[in-house]
Specification:
44% helix, alpha/beta, 10-stranded mixed β-sheet, 2 domains
């Protein structure tokens, strides 16, 4: 057994791992956390009522390292599992790792060091996209570490240039979760809360080193036949939040809402699910109503603006171009 003890002289990091039907990936995931160069961590494995052997695997892993805690609960979904982990976490900082992903051994050491250096309460790292055929793609890098203010961080999160709203590539001060929890029963659960966490943080430190290995599973939620409309609804809530609290950020919020509508339509194309005419019109209306904000969004690439225009003018051509692009990029 690994007898690394929790050291209260240095900040404790609680790493929360929700578990459901991941027998194939769980041990590799947990081993990558155990192997962190930053040793003062607690690893909270939340068995979300998994019907396979994940619960037993988690218990066995706990026997190998005293820093591992296992929570067994009735199935309630990803948000419910993460919330259960937050409820028992003792750390000064909190991180999340999805149980089919892995992290680099230096991830939490570097994220903690960066936020301490920059005097922030939230840090985020670059990400590797790992495919089941062995292909690895790194998300676009900035070339240097940067600390963003709230406005710029919201732009980056919604434009997905260097990072996005995924909960798993970040290290959070525990105070953010005093009154924030993941919404139970929703998809895009990260989107519903990340802009609120960014608002609390105000300054977000970005680490330009890929530390999180995000597995692209063919049967994951994002690739299922169930279309994720919550992505649109979360973007709408973000837009309303920014409109009310930060009127000067309307371009960001409204452009993100239009982009989310287009993203949901793209989910139909990716998963070969027929999109009804009514839904198509609905998505187009959202884009059209927010077109003046899209035109003012100087952070958008030309190709993204062309994407919006093409979607309004000719959805049929848009479909052809979209599918050809995905085939060329193997995404």
């Amino acid at each position: 057994m690994n007898n690394d003890k929790i050291n209260r002289d240095t900040p404790l990091i609680s790493v929360i791992v929700p578990i459901y039907k991941v027998e194939k990936y769980l041990e590799k995931c947990v081993r990558s956390i155990i192997s962190q160069t930053y040793k003062n961590i607690e690893i909270i494995l939340v068995d979300d009522g998994s019907p396979d052997n994940c619960g037993k695997l988690a218990d066995n892993l706990a026997k190998t390292d005293s820093r591992i805690k296992v929570v067994h609960k009735v199935n309630g979904g990803l948000s419910s599992a993460r919330n259960a982990g937050i409820d028992v976490a003792q750390g000064d900082y909190i991180g999340f790792v999805d149980s089919d992903d892995t992290i680099e051994p230096f991830m939490y050491e570097k994220l903690l060091s960066l936020l301490q250096k920059e005097n922030t309460k939230l840090s985020v790292c670059a990400v590797n996209y790992v495919y089941e055929d062995g292909k690895v793609l790194r998300k676009k890098g900035l070339g240097k570490n940067v600390t963003f203010d709230f406005c710029q961080a919201i732009i980056e999160m919604n434009s997905h240039r260097y990072f996005d709203m995924g909960a798993w590539s970040k290290l959070y001060h525990r105070s953010f979760f005093e009154d924030i929890r993941f919404p139970v029963g929703k998809l895009s659960e990260d989107y519903y809360i990340m802009y609120k966490i960014f608002d609390k943080a105000q300054r977000i430190s970005y680490l330009d080193i890929p530390c999180y290995n995000y597995l692209q599973r063919k049967n994951s939620i994002t690739r299922s036949d169930k279309i994720n409309h919550d992505h649109e609804y979360a973007a709408y809530e973000q837009m309303c939040y920014l409109d009310e609290k930060y009127p000067g950020m309307k371009v960001i919020g409204h452009t993100a809402y239009a982009s989310a509508a287009l993203t949901v339509y793209d989910f139909y194309l990716k998963n070969n699910v027929k999109c009804s005419k009514e839904k198509m019109i609905h998505f187009q209306e959202i884009v059209r109503e927010n077109r003046k904000y899209i035109e003012k969004a100087d952070y958008l690439t030309k190709s993204k603006k062309v994407q919006f225009i093409l979607f309004l003018k000719s959805p049929t051509l848009y479909n052809v171009v979209f599918k050809a692009y995905r085939k060329a990029k193997r995404i």
